[in-house]
Amino acid sequence: YKIYITMRFYDRTNEIAELQRKNKLSFNDHSRMTVVTGRRRIGKTSLIMRSIEDSPTVYLFVGRKNEATLCAEFIPVIAQSLETFVANEFRTFR
Which among 92, 86, 47 has a CA at the least distance from the CA of 71? Predict the structure, then answer.
């Protein structure tokens, strides 16, 4: 599925470029995880989604849930995004 973002970004060119650079590194070198932090409602998710809109990337939102619940929620998202089978046996990130 595609997510369309209508929010306008002002002076976020450097941030988007840095996120895209990190994303390319994960495809060319080793897998990486990028964490974006900040105050509530300032556009962190929109910034991330804008930076990966043309990239085969899985976006997983980590809420305040237990590990088994997060794994259960992530399995179908990963399977659909990557168009591959993911076993339902995962209950931990380790």
Answer: 92
